[in-house]
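Supplementary notes (optional reading)

For those who missed the lab, this is the record we used. Protein: Cytochrome B. Length: 244 residues.
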Amino acid sequence: MTTMSLQSYAVWDRPTRWFHWINFVCVVALIALGTAILYGKALGVTDDGKLLLKTVHVWFGYVFALNLGWRIVWAFLGNRHARWSGMLPFLRGYGTSLAAYLRGLARGDERPYLGHNPVARLMVSLLVLFLVVQAVTGLVLAGTDIYYPPFGYWIASWVAAPGVDPSTLVPYNDTGIDAASWDAMRAFRTPFITAHYWSFYALLVLIVIHIAGVVTTELREGGGLVSAMFTGRKVFDRDPADDV
């Protein structure tokens, strides 16, 4: 490892930073709203209150899903730290890099990384996976629960009684609903709500690990890991392992 004077490096491009903070706000809001919905009965939330919570939850979900979709696209277009090649742990040479990083951790002299270090790549991959699961299942549930796009009209058409205009159906009101179709729709909904429920808890665990990892890496390696998500730059007094 080469010791040198402090040097600033451009790392996170602007779209990546915007994604991160928009995602942060959306995830915090969705967790709060989702918790209130999940424990609505214990909290004394009425049907009207639950409908309001779900509506706000869905609108935050739209922003979350669009932001996530943009980040997936940007992973093909952004700088080398924002691309899939700088995020995923499945590419050539990853095993060697991970082993070297872990040996450095054991010795207490691990080299810092400009982008994601090998362990962080594993975390990022898991976070992206569960964020995608939440987005996809959430969009389906927006249709089954309150008939919102993109699947809401199709769901409403499915459960509407013969001769009933699907657009007239009202959430939490069984007027105009065909009972058999409703039961079939709820059976269809079950795996999506199950995946949404468990990935919600998985994300909570991953977020705690992610925050702990950020704090630990900042303390051990420096570089301004948190501030870099505002400024886009990291500062090191050592030669980063991925400075190519």
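If you only remember one thing from this example: Residues 3-238 form a domain with the Fumarate Reductase Cytochrome B subunit fold (CATH 1.20.950.20).
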